[in-house]
Amino acid sequence: MKHVGKYIYGIISSNGAENFGPIGIGGQSDEVMTLGSEGLAAVVSNASMDHYVLSRENMTAHMKVIEKVMELYNILPMRFCTVADTSDEIISFLERNSKELTDLLRDMDGKVEMDIKVRWKDMKKIYQEIAQENRKIRDLKSAKPPQTQRDLIHAGELVAAALEKKKAAEGEGYLVPFKKLAKGSKTMESGADEVVIHEAFLIDKDWLKEFDQSAEKLAEKFGDRLDVKSVGPMAPFSFVTLQLHWNE
User: Fold this and answer.
1) Mean pLDDT within 25-33
2) DSSP letters spanning 159-209
3) pTM higher than the cut 0.90
């Protein structure tokens, strides 16, 4: 008989027993409910396996549960694929870490995460600007062939460095209105040449309208140059990391 554990989505402050419906991860329509102790509760569903594949389907299910819980509670989101063997392990974890979890819930009370991603629309234009702004790159581009492999590598390194410098200088100005509204921010890895900034912000719910307006103004002002995408509100994934060690 296959062992059934508990998949944990997050931690909330609650004294009662809650049921959020048959929306559990895994496609089995498992009920999502709370498992609590002394004012703290884990949001859980049955888990028939100890590992879930990092797929779009599973991540979407994980996120949908958290979004559902957020309609009623502040939640400390758990990392994807956090599974406990038994309910007793979860209760023990809540009791051992009661103060830390309570403090985190208080700190995150009324706050959500908003992510901003800003991309350049026309990279050909950006590379042209870099060449105009950097004499060394301009000279290398105008040099007559044949160029050596070393020259090509050097040119690539110069362009990459100039691109990062341009992102930092240009992106700093774009971030100003958002940072004025935020309680905290965190730079996210972009990995793409066209991404000028990818930043997560911790925002009071009362400031969400102003945050959205800042994103709209940025898009309107630089519409020919930039693509501005705002994602959220979400649970504070970028600002809360719970390390679970069941057997401490």
Assistant:
1) 89
2) HHHHHHHHHHHHHHHHHHHHHHH-SEEEEPP--STTEEEEEEEEEEGGGHH
3) no
